[in-house]
Design goal:
The chain is mainly α and about 400 residues long. The protein has a single domain (about 10-400), classed as Amino acid/polyamine transporter I (Up-down Bundle). The protein has 17 helices and no strands. The chain has helices spanning about 1-25, 30-40, 45-70, 75-80, 85-115, 120-135, 140-165, 170-180, 185-195, 200-210, 220-250, 260-300, 305-310, 310-330, 335-355, 360-365, 370-400. The longest helix has about 40 residues, at about 260-300. It is globular, with a radius of gyration of 20 Å. The relative contact order is 0.20. The mean pLDDT is about 85. GO terms for molecular function: cadmium ion transmembrane transporter activity; manganese ion transmembrane transporter activity. It is a multi-pass membrane protein. Keywords: Membrane, Transmembrane, Transmembrane helix.
């Protein structure tokens, strides 16, 4: 009896860790900036964009987490089972995107330390890199990663909640525009979805569950709750930040275009707010560094027993290379633009593969995937493919400007 209770408690802890890993992977420097900029542009109508993006996020996460869990395989192996070679292509896209975005995450960690302590951003980036590397040097790295993302996730939410209250947003207007927007913006929707479940992010929690041994049909109720919790955590942070920004811009205050989120925190809560921004930015960035490195390497570890045995060294190497590029080159804007555009294609490709896999008995056995999940998943694939191609077509010309 005690063993059963201990197992359930351990599973709950792992599921919460997986949820926070996915959520904090999504809440990075780009998440903070995108939410701030779009709120300034769309005002209260941005609430509708958030609602639509949450519904799409739920459709993607539920499908992907459940199929990964019931098959007991990582996404790249499922893709190779669907079509030989497709898993290698998916892994290439994820690792390329992960490396490029991790350079931005490391830069964000450096910016956070600069705000907090006034030290050079590159020095702060190196110190943050060493902390992230330290997590994977510990024997119980998975448990340490879970705890790290949970603690910093709670810190980010609590501090942003405080800033939201000091900003005094128009709650009634925001609630009304959630269902009756004055203007729509498709680009904002695809950007938010890409930033929350695009690229490597949607697999962060699913692959963590596989590593922890939570799989099979009997685990599906827990897995579904974990997926919904992950979206809930990321969405809560998005809503709090949106309301904080709305409170500031509704007063007619102008944000600094060089660093919009920092100016929101400063305008809402003065110098204390600016320091809070430093904590939130650093927390968002360093947890994204950890989640990105872990998930990107999880896409190649099944291709070789040697890589699998030394996967923690590969994770550490991934973090070190990202930091080295940032310190030497800075943030390679053109690469980030191109990879950001490619990132929009990863979700429809991966989700499409998962939906096909859900109906192949050699992958999922006698599992019957709910038809309503397939339907909303298929709609998401088509919508995100169209928007992803649009993003790519607009991203490539910027490389030649």
């Amino acid at each position: 009896m005690n063993n059963t209770l201990d197992q359930k408690k351990q599973n709950r802890s792992i599921l919460l860790g997986a949820a926070f890993l996915m959520a904090t992977s999504a809440i990075g420097p780009g998440f903070l900036t995108q939410t701030t900029v779009f709120t300034e542009q769309l005002m209260a109508s941005f609430a509708f964009v958030i609602l639509i993006s949450i519904l799409i996020d739920i459709a993607a996460q539920l499908n992907i987490w459940r199929i990964i869990a019931v098959s007991g395989k990582r996404a790249q192996d499922i893709a190779n089972d669907v079509l030989p070679g497709l898993g290698y292509f998916l892994a290439l896209l994820v690792v390329m995107g992960g490396l490029a975005f991790n350079i931005g995450n490391i830069g964000g960690a450096g910016l956070g330390t600069n705000v907090l302590f006034g030290i050079d951003a590159k020095v702060g980036a190196v110190l943050s890199c060493l902390l992230a590397v330290g997590i994977f040097l510990v024997k119980e790295a998975g448990r340490m990663m879970d705890r790290f993302t949970q603690v910093l996730g709670f810190v980010m939410i609590a501090l942003t909640l405080y800033v939201m209250f000091t900003a005094s947003p128009p709650y009634g207007e925001a609630a009304l525009r959630t269902v009756a927007p004055l203007e729509l913006d498709a680009l904002a929707i695809v950007t938010l979805v890409g930033g929350t479940v695009g690229g490597y992010i949607t697999f962060a929690g699913g692959h963590r569950l596989i590593d922890a041994g939570i799989k099979g049909k009997e685990a599906l109720p827990e897995v579904s709750r974990g997926a919904l919790s992950a979206i809930g955590i990321a969405s809560l942070m998005r809503v709090l930040l949106f309301l904080a920004v709305l409170g500031v811009v509704s007063q007619g205050l102008k944000l600094n275009p060089d660093n919009p989120p920092a100016s929101v925190f400063q305008l809402a809560a003065g110098n204390i707010g600016y320091k809070i921004f430093g904590v939130v930015m650093w927390s968002a960035a360093v947890t994204s560094v950890v989640g990105c490195a872990y998930t990107s390497v999880s896409f190649i570890r099944t291709f070789s027993e040697w890589i699998d045995r030394h996967h923690r060294k590969f994770i550490i190497g991934f973090i070190l290379v990202s930091t080295l590029v940032f310190v030497i080159v800075g943030q390679p804007v053109k690469i980030l633009v191109l990879v950001g555009s490619l990132n929009g294609l990863i979700l429809p490709l991966a989700l499409g593969v998962m939906l096909v896999a859900a109906y192949k008995s050699k992958i999922v056995g006698d599992y019957r995937h709910p038809k309503w999940m397939t339907a909303i998943g298929a709609i998401t694939v088509v919508a995100m493919a169209i928007m992803g191609i649009y993003s790519l077509m607009n991203g490539i010309p910027q490389l030649f400007k």
